[in-house]
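Please check the following for our workbook:

***
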Amino acid sequence: MAGVMRPACTALLVALALAALAGSRAQRTTTYAPDVTDDVGGWRRGRATFFGGEERFLANFPDRGPPPEYGFGNIRYGSCGYYEQNGRQDVTYGNQVYPRNAMAALANNDPDYPGSCGRCYEIRCRSLPVIANGTTPYRLSGTYQLAAVAPNAADEHGRYYPGNPLYGQDAQLTRCWNATDGGEDSIIVHITDMCPCVQYEDTEHPSRVTGVNTPCCGDVYHFDLSYWAFERLAHPLYGIMMVDFRPLDCATHEPLTYLPGFVNQTLYGDRVESGWSFEPYRQHYSSFWSPWSGVDGHNATCQATGPDGGLTLACRECDRDGYRPFAQAGSHGALEFWTAPTPDMPQGIPALTVTLGNKGARQYCSSFNTSAIAPVNRRGNYFKFSLPLAAFQCPSGYGLERLDQVTFASNARGNVSYCLSMIALVANPADGSSLER
């Protein structure tokens, strides 16, 4: 636009609201009616805020927090671990695995939050009055209003704030960009992070609450988009907008069933697949994907660790009804994977320990060492293993329906470098068992 319309007050709900929720938290049993009757492909109504952003824009709000984030958070360290985790390098926008304008966090109060890492959603902005919880209008009073602080702040495309026609009513109507403004009808985002209702100091001290993300606690479906994704749909000075959304297949963009949310039985294909987080630990280097380095020319994830390092792939909260990927593979199913040493290591089977478990409860099953079992296949320098799920001895009360993670840990005495390819939970193993050879 050529100029700036009368400034109006908006709010950014991404920030921590250090206040009581006053009963606004919703249980995951809340129903979200689709706008169409077909559960596959139906658009649903929700809401979105943003986090992160260009420092040039964020610096307009110095009272929110110190630079360079100014209290808006950042997108670089998402809870799904979707970035190249090289212990010798800082995490930058350049080593994110997905474009920064296609990244989002999902509220952990959303009904399809379980297994949401890596899932894709199509989102479109709606020029509607913003609602808080239920059908209650979102009120501007008592909120931090970006447009009131910096009404002339342009976005990254030089566009100015279009104004809020409901400002005089203490409400907000977000005006979506249209084609004339360079806007997009819809965008597709990857879930790379979570928007927690309640934030804790750390996982070791879950009772130490450090803040509350109010918009992620309500009964309205909520996304926290990256700043760059948000501005594709509306001006960031709005801070919050109503949206329509639907889950999509990340590869084909075909619409998917809403509930339960899609979780891939393949944990790692050409990348970490939908439903699974990427959690290397005590690594010297870890690649999210190494192009064409896997079996049969697929991508691989390659790790360089010491004797106490490894990689966990976890499906968060997937022990809930409707998810349970290990139980879907069944009692006759298996965990299958291919592994190979990196070219700089001695050739042969990498010395790995494979363990299943429940991430949230910190319960772990028995493990198997690749050095003590037999591969069921070999292609080039890659060895395939097939481990029957029933062979893992798990703690009482933690059968297949409670499992949600796989860990590959080094059992070498020194440093080890290896690659993993085509990791999957299969119902009908084709090559037999690594325990029967």
Remarks:
- The CA atoms of residues 154 and 160 lie 5 Å apart.
- Confidence is low (pLDDT under 50) at residues 1-37.
